[in-house]
Amino acid sequence: MSHTGLTSGLPAWSTDPGELARVSVDRSGVAPDGLPDLVVFAQSVRDVRRTVSYAASRGVPVVPRGAGSGVAGGAVAGAGEIVLDLSGLDRIADLRPDDALAVVEPGVITADLDAAAHPHGLRYAPDPASAAFSTIGGNIATNAGGLRCVKYGVTRDAVLAVDAVLGDGSLVSTGRRTVKGVTGYDLTGLLVGSEGTLGVVVGATLRLSPLPTTTATAAAFFATADDAVAAVTSLQRRGLRPSTAELLDQATLRAIDDAQGTALHTRGEVFLLLQTDGYGAEAELAEAERLLRPSATHLETTTDPETAARLVAVRRAALPAVERYGRVLIEDIAVPRSRIAESITAVGDIARRTGVRIVVFAHAGDGNLHPIVVADSAPPERVDEAVAAIFEHALAVGGTLTGEHGVGTLKRPWLADELGEPVLDLHRRLKSVFDPAGILNPGKAIR
Amino acid sequence: MSHTGLTSGLPAWSTDPGELARVSVDRSGVAPDGLPDLVVFAQSVRDVRRTVSYAASRGVPVVPRGAGSGVAGGAVAGAGEIVLDLSGLDRIADLRPDDALAVVEPGVITADLDAAAHPHGLRYAPDPASAAFSTIGGNIATNAGGLRCVKYGVTRDAVLAVDAVLGDGSLVSTGRRTVKGVTGYDLTGLLVGSEGTLGVVVGATLRLSPLPTTTATAAAFFATADDAVAAVTSLQRRGLRPSTAELLDQATLRAIDDAQGTALHTRGEVFLLLQTDGYGAEAELAEAERLLRPSATHLETTTDPETAARLVAVRRAALPAVERYGRVLIEDIAVPRSRIAESITAVGDIARRTGVRIVVFAHAGDGNLHPIVVADSAPPERVDEAVAAIFEHALAVGGTLTGEHGVGTLKRPWLADELGEPVLDLHRRLKSVFDPAGILNPGKAIR
């Protein structure tokens, strides 16, 4: 379709097939159905409003896009759709140390905001693994988590207010600059995690938090997932509040060993990276050591930053190591805390049964598991079978399809199984209030 | 109106004028317009569904009610309305220490849940001042805060899932039993704080958190509000995370002195009660002492529970002491952290200008101020003028009408000033999705 009615006067847009191909995909591996019609590189809120108004009047779907770093297909765009690229809206408009908040545009890179806060003794707490290249807008769209959200909360907990362009092109401001507030419904929280289906976030007021004074780190290995999870549970029940509690299974350790020539997998079946921070960091770690020691097959603790960096590097090496096996699907189930060990075991069973190579990373403190499925390790129907089995397991133990990545396009088939039809229908009616023409990222997040 | 169509077969209801008068008011002092038609004492989810369905079919407003402890008029019911009393739904249905969660009915008293968690080393973190008599359902309706929410979050942060009866009598379940999850929109967060206007909460899954190992306490006095607030800010900027940071102004100290025969007001203009907890409690308090010492006119610190209880008692004595002056209106503005001192001063100025007796309590860590207005200390028009001036001040400094009590009926006149008409209209359209007949607590929270 020709979109001259929109593009005349727009400062930046493209119909170049190479550009369109680039902006039609994210990191999910989902293939779009043809190329989108057009990409608009928004330079202003006005550009966003104009694009959405145009799309609403013509019934053309708009797919908002930040860095394209999503892993669930939330930003995939195909034929007949307009991509609305927000990466050019990348200003930190205000940073107020005394109020511990920042006002940003959606295209700001997450790590850049964090870095901008550091000179003030502050940080932006949510730290998705993609922080170095994902945008705040994308983080808001998916309610991104990260390693330290077990202590400091997910993206929703950091978003105080948003400016959003609704599906009719109108601009609304929700929320406030105060930490607390209950005037009106929580529209801010509703927009967070809505994957661009309720509004296009064009600005956000974000909470910053103090940089911790001290960080202490432990690396432990255990003979079984049960032992490792029991250890984490025992810490939490003793009132410890780790800032990081990451598990890697033995298949992941083998991948890292293959990549690095190390022998981590000989130390145990499961690796636990634990960090504590703040004024109690060392006392907490000492208590953690006492609790982990009896069941750990190997245990190392440190407050030395260099040694800590070496231990943290094991966790960071995990995904690149697994990616050497081929293209990966990063799954993202979350389960009740008491079911974590059983879920790690279940994923291992699914891998064996289907012949698909799957490794597991887990944010153990909050029950969020990332089964990493190597897509080319088995025939496609086997991979589909494995992924379906993982979702079915999550729902069977009272868990959820996605802890922090979003539903996107990939998880829609299981949506009704988790939410139930009546609640899904409520979602649809809610969307129609925000987006009467149904043009905001249709077919994503809900169905 | 006769409601025999509803009451036939209902196990418990009343049209007794005494009962109706009792359930027609809350602690706001708002006088209802006549007596409600009927009160239904729900014994089951079925009773709730039946009452709401009946009301929807007849277009009769339903006012959900817990303990009636609200202070904004959210549970006030008048002629032509049905009161739906949920206090009989008071079971803790499940408490799972390994998952750190509890499943409760809405009528459970907040402090009872907290107490039930203690033997497991857990607690229910939100601690509104009303915890001893308010219900979880009421806490959810207003997104209640409390003293320790500066560190542990407000009610919304503790609610993982709810069961709610919508305005058509249908029952929906939102949320999940996992800490993290982004499947679908955050309907749970939307229902929290909606003051019974979107659905009647009939069940909730709540997050529990570990009881802190250690608590340390400081009581400090300062010559000015500026000094006190600057001290709190300096703590937060040093990365301290106090679990309590309560300010009382000198007018409050005088009220306490009058009631108790003490001489607290001679120690300074402003009192700060500070608590730290967890593994770093003592290290944090030592650092706090170092930071407070230069500007404090009086400073006392302790880790001894009995001494701490004596210091905490000062804060607890505040409201009863002020209530000796007469009936009070408990206001609840929140302002950006950097504007707290100025707001305390502004309230003092308003009191002097209008001749109304007003004292101030503040949750200083999160900028939530409670100006306590003594209703009978001046002519009604003066009191109205003072209250209006407080709200206008809050909005002028980028704050909000209500930090944790809700809008109820009392704050509706200022609602559009804070939210703006377009956002308020969005609220109305959103409500119509959940409550097409407009019968759920109409005229409250939004307008």
UniProtKB/TrEMBL annotation, chains A, B:
What cofactor does this one take? FAD
Q: What is this protein called?
A: Glycolate oxidase
Main EC class the enzyme belongs to: oxidoreductase
Q: What is its EC number?
A: 1.1.3.15
Which InterPro entries does the record associate with it? FAD-bd_oxidored_4_C, FAD-bd_PCMH, FAD-bd_PCMH-like_sf, FAD-bd_PCMH_sub2, FAD-linked_Oxase-like_C, FAD-linked_OxidoTrans_Type4, Oxid_FAD_bind_N, Vanillyl_alc_oxidase_C-sub2
Keywords of the record = FAD, Flavoprotein, Oxidoreductase
Q: What superkingdom does the record give?
A: Bacteria
- A GO molecular-function term, please? (S)-2-hydroxy-acid oxidase activity
Where do the FAD-binding PCMH-type domain residues begin and end? 32-211
Q: Which source organism?
A: Saccharothrix violaceirubra
Task: Indicate the segments annotated as coiled coil, or none if absent.
Answer: none
